[in-house]
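seq:
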Amino acid sequence: MPSRLDLLLVTPPSRLQVYQELSHSLAAIEPPVWSGLLATFVRSKGFSVEILDAEVLGLGPEETAQQIVDRHAVLTVFMIYGQQPSASTQCMPAGRRVCKLVDEAATELPTLVIGTHPSALPQQTLREEPYRYVCEGEGPYTVVGLLNALRSGGQDLQGVPGLWYWENGHIHHNSPAGKILDLDRELSKQTWDLLPMPGYRAHNWHCFDDLESRIGYASIQTSLGCPYKCSFCCINAPFGGAGIRYWSSECVIRQIDELVYTYGITNIKIPDEMFVLNRRHVLSLCDAIIERGYKLNIWAYARVDTVQDEVLEKLRTAGFRWLGLGIESGSQHVRDGVEKGRFGSTDILRTVERIKNHGIYVAANYIFGLPDDTYSSMEETLGLALALNAEWANFYCAMAYPGSPLHALAKEKGWTLPEDQGGPGWIGYSQHGYDTLPLPTESLTATQVLAFRDSAFSKYFSSSSYLKNLKEKFGDSVVRHVEEMNGHTIRRRHHEKVAV
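struct:
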């Protein structure tokens, strides 16, 4: 008789609820980075591991729950991460639904939840959600400690770092786990062999050079955390505060080697919150890629004030085709209010132009409804976006994500939040969901902010100058693709209420 599986890492099915119709062909299907890292760590300690990614397998909640019950692991871990760290909260409802179904079928199965959201609100998560345990922190030390405790009868939980749990009707929690300092040694790679690698799909814009090449996609972390403290960001909730740690370029390039040679993957995302920051780190990795002569299509994040010409030249030669820039607002006053750098619109324009001059495409990110926003400042942001004319633009509504300073401020000020009584709950933090509920501002309601965002998206992607830019760089097929994309109308509950 085969021995019992020690650990099952689960990505619950959130995509349809989070992205609505966009999930069918436009949104990416992201490989679960943290599941891959955690699997490597736990395997190194002698435990057996499997990964169940319901997103890539196209499973519904009932099918996911049944697979969990059938595998009957010593510990089942729900990994609540979205396509970016801020997207953790919107995945909570799917995890809850699956876990409830598991409990109904097999109440004895121990479940633990890990992610940015549970780390930000561990006590509330334990009180309100169906998981038996909650992890506060990164996860690897907590998971191994809990596995050892469960293998020994599950009585000695006090020694499991970062664990929240019930005992005799009361909530208990242990001291946080220490940060993993030697990433190369303890989290040496992501485990790819436990994933159906051919099923992952790149973002549509990532493959504007070849829209038919989106299947075959991977995501590689090269650092953890961020040294900045933008008020709207919750990136550092699992890490206990601002800071950044790096994998060596040797460690990262070994993973790229495996992706290229074993899986034939050349579309790669680097999800680090701030990749173009440490010049030595970036140049070292670029040199390793250039030395191998790979033809890659990589995208990564940068800041307006961290991009240098020498770095841009190396990035382009190494295959970095896209850089994501957090511009956020066209108003200096609004940017200052969320501690988003001391750069002005002129600096932004110059930086975008420099990136384009090096043959790298720009994916610009904007936020409407930040605390100091007015209708006029949001118009200023849209005007800047149209002037920059980046090859791609993401338009977001301001959200007070749990774990961000903005969430604490919203609670203090009594601003309406999705989790408030009568609200849509955690799914309200989804940017593309039916129940999206952004923050109001001093002069704008949440509905007005959402309406402006949706209108701005349509105006940008139907702009004649934008479509001309696409045609010149990518051809008619990409123009038709974007026009078709822009024809999708995202359903919004709040728009429908206003219409009524």
